[in-house]
Design brief:
The protein has one domain. It is α+β, with helices and mostly antiparallel strands and 124 residues long. A 4-stranded antiparallel β-sheet has the order 1-4-2-3. The chain has helices at residues 4-8, 23-41, 71-89, 96-103, 110-119, and strands at residues 14-15, 20-22, 62-63, 68-69. The protein has 5 helices and 4 strands, in the order αββαββααα.
Amino acid sequence: MLTSKDVMNKTLTPTQFHAGYDEREVDDLLDKIAGALRYYEQGGRPGPEAPASPTLGHRFTSTKFRRGYEEGEVDDFLDQVIETMHFYEQGGRPDLHALASLVGSEPEGLGHRALRWLRGDPRS
């Protein structure tokens, strides 16, 4: 299962002088994917207000003589994204451990308190 943080931190291999995907297009799509994942991580549910899956049927401009991203690597990562989006679109809920890594280190933050409540931790 991917998180929005995984998508934002993904480093892709650049290419030049052989086929690749346009960097700007890939980066823009990854931003949309991260936003959709944040929606579900923050408790969003599938339905008309949910973001559309930004990966289905998406095509990138091919590059050859300019910088791009390695096509196979992008395709493999997008397969993982599609799996994750399908999980959420079918009503799946985020993993609490994955959410804990997204909350940060602020012990009194609302997200941290919500995670403790969801886990059933005693009040501190």
